[in-house]
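Entry type: protein chain
Record version: 2
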Amino acid sequence: MHWFRWDGADLLLNVKIQPGASRNEFSGLHGAALRVRIHAPAVEGQANEALIVFLSRSFATSKRCITIERGTLSRTKSLRIQVPSQLPAELVLLGLTTATQ
């Protein structure tokens, strides 16, 4: 299983978040998931909200275009990004391409 796949124009991501980090950033791969460090703590949905804000900025899309499909209460999550406007350069280096798979 790969850490991303395309579903038409939507991008599906498997992520492993690390809440309480010093800053928001992509930090490589963790098995079949993209590791994302999030500054917000894992309290009352703060990390989930910060993750959505970080991804919306990274993919140049609105927050409402990003949904957590699985893992709302877990550090391992499956997300859908509807029609991302751009692909972050650091993720292109990890193998994310614009080709549908």
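Comment: Strands lie at 4-7, 10-18, 25-30, 33-37, 66-70, 76-81.
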